[in-house]
Design brief:
The structure is a homodimer. Chain A is built from ten helices and no strands. The first copy, chain A, is mainly α and about 220 residues long. In chain A, α3 packs across α4. Chain A binds a DNA duplex (30 and 30 nucleotides) through α1 and α3.
Chain lengths: ~220, ~220
DNA sequence: CCCGGGGTGTTACTTGCGGTAACCGCAGTC
DNA sequence: GACTGCGGTTACCGCAAGTAACACCCCGGG
């Protein structure tokens, strides 16, 4: 049992961490982002200090939690982005992948992006998510920028332009998705087509309304 | 002093509120969004309960504070959007107006959009801004959607499409602006041109890089 | 002239959370 | 059997939001 024990402990270190993260996930999904450390600890069947031993502080726990979901989402997006198809099809597939993800797990999405959306009794003391939501958008923007820079010929200053576009497109996707998720004003396909049309320059082509110059 | 005083009190009710808001503004600009109610009260030369009498709770204070800046920004954007010029010029002017605003008062911008960016000793207990940043983006998106729907002929389902575009464009502007403000990778003009080019369909037109299909 | 009422302001408190120090008990070891 | 390392707990601190209860001040009315 000598070395076996050592391994057990080794294993259980990582294992424990994963269990704690899953417990935290459950609580966050149930209670929303304002889940307290106490509640998470209770869900995991332990008490606060252990959480702090594992994650340092609340931000650390959040970061670990967010990284899992973020990595999964980014992997899915990369897959859609790298699929062998026409550019427009790939753009639509990527948009659709993102929107399907946030549609499928809106609680996770809200946790990643919006701090303290729902109002518990005391809605304060929520996860300080906002500070970390930017990193997610940034990561997506940088990833997209890289793909654009790699794949498309943009002439001089292409690297800078690719980054502008990467962050811009990600922001478009994010804001439109957020609004759509809240109001559900149309189907996912319609939203995807609308956004792709926008990216495809329809804004420049469509006519003004009768009377006066257009937007 | 009879009726004069009544008026004084009346006046000073609104006046007071404005003074408190300006004090809060100063503190938020100095201490960042994690400014405490105590600190704001101290800056205003009074104590907490008065703040609560005026604004109900912290969210109320924030909302009042945000409304001022939001209204001002929206007014500026509307002006740029309504200027008599070609569509592309107006789009660029609007983007530039927004970017100039966030560039001129980044503290205000961070307060409106990002909760607790800077890290004080205890970076927690910040304004729960995230919950309210969405409304700002939503308002901008809805405003833009309205302008688009009014001015541009989008065919059937034009209202829905206008909203998609409104929120999408606002999100693009926001995310790109946020990234740009953090990294300053290029001049404002370059950013504006890059985004306008994106909206003008350059993504659909540019060639792939040599070897393999493009994005 | 005193007296009650609405407005402004204060002190002092409660509650609840993030974070930490100090202690507990049980493996396995010498 | 005493020693050590580690998972775990209780009990606590600090701090911020929010509140209750009290103090002042200026007024119109008896």
């Amino acid at each position: 049992m000598g070395t076996t024990h050592r391994t057990d402990q080794q294993r259980s270190a990582d294992q424990r961490r994963r269990e704690l993260l899953e417990a935290a996930d459950r609580v966050v999904l149930r209670d929303g982002p304002q889940a307290s450390m106490n509640a998470i600890a209770a869900e995991a069947g332990i008490t606060k200090p252990i959480l702090y031993r594992h994650f340092g502080d609340k931000g650390g726990l959040y970061r670990a939690l967010a990284k899992r979901h973020t990595d999964a989402l980014l992997a899915a997006l990369r897959a859609a982005l790298d699929a062998p198809a026409e550019r427009r099809e790939r753009v639509e597939a990527t948009l659709d992948t993102y929107l399907a993800a946030i549609e499928a797990r809106p609680q996770v999405y809200r946790f990643l992006m919006h701090p303290a959306e729902d109002a518990g009794q005391h809605a304060e003391h929520a996860f300080d998510v906002g500070r970390h939501s930017a990193p997610l958008l940034r990561r997506m923007g940088e990833e997209l920028a890289q793909v654009i820079a790699e794949r498309i010929e943009l002439g001089p200053a292409s690297e800078a332009l690719a980054r502008v576009w990467g962050h811009g497109i990600v922001g478009m996707m994010h804001a439109a998705g957020d609004w759509w998720l809240g109001e559900r004003p149309c189907t996912r396909e319609e939203l995807v087509r609308g956004l792709a049309d926008l990216l495809w320059g329809r804004l420049a082509e469509v006519d003004d309304r009768a009377g006066g110059p257009g937007f």
